[in-house]
Amino acid sequence: AALYGQACHERGLGKSTYGTGNFVLQNAGAEPADPPEGLLLSIAWGVDDRVDYALEASVFVTGAAVQWLRDGLGLIAAAADTEELAASLDGNDGVYFVPALTGLGSPHWDPYARGTIVGLTRGSGRAHLARAALESIAYQTLDAVRAIESASGASMGELRADGGATANAWLMQFQADVLGAPVIVPEVPETTALGAAYLAGVATGLWTEADTRAMWREAARYEPQMADDRRDSLVHDWRRALERARAWAEPASRE
């Protein structure tokens, strides 16, 4: 429903819903190929005589990592505190947080991965952990987007974002920076409910699909500002951290 609510009615358009986890979907059109391991293929919607499909990547822990900082560690009083803390640093100083608190979802599907923080020094503080949590949301979304684009052969070009975390301007800008593509937040961030309403309206003849596209409004656009070499370095180190979290918990058969 959120994909429809984001007016991603054409093949190749995609969105990410930012909640406790992230759900990245791309319109795969009416005749999609079989998805590779790590991704899901589902029916997006059926309008008139046409059925469109979606490639989906489900990331288990994104906003829930920020909740853990608040409720589990007591480092912040509210999720919104992370924006100011992250912005207080010029960089991440090599601190990365892989929030595999329930394993890793798409595109890795590793139930034995565990939450890992790397790069800590005596100079690291709560701002580093807050920033690392926000960065991890963007990196995991990047991994999901790239896996979907590789499977579909279609670049998203831009990422439409919805959900509660879109209120965090620092995160949205960092997401655009690591993607190297614009991130667009609509006027109505709760697009799952909006998409369900749009589909009901189209099904009953209240609106046409073109009407729903015309009703979609952009509230904020974040253009990438990061230099390519800086982006490549950050993503490279994220992948290093990711490997250290993978397969940390041994299967029971090996114990």
Task: Describe what this molecule looks like in 3D.
This protein is an alpha+beta fold. It has helices at residues 2-5, 63-72, 81-87, 126-152, 169-179, 191-203, 209-215, 228-245; strands spanning 14-18, 22-29, 40-47, 50-59, 96-98, 116-118, 159-162, 183-186, 218-222. The strands form 2 sheets. The protein has a 7-stranded mixed sheet, sandwiched between helices. The protein has a two-stranded antiparallel ribbon with strand order 5-6. β3 (40-47) and β4 form a beta hairpin. α2 (63-72) runs antiparallel to α4 (126-152), α3 packs across α4 and α4 packs across α5. The longest helix is centred in the middle third of the chain and has 27 residues, at 126-152. It is globular.
Short description:
This protein has 255 residues and is an alpha+beta fold. The protein is 38% helix and 20% strand.
Structural class: alpha+beta
CATH arch. level architecture of the largest domain: 2-Layer Sandwich
The unreliable regions are none
CATH class of the largest domain: Alpha Beta
How many domains, as an integer? 2
Number of helices: 8
> CATH-wise, what's the superfamily of the largest domain?
ATPase, nucleotide binding domain
Radius of gyration: 19 Å
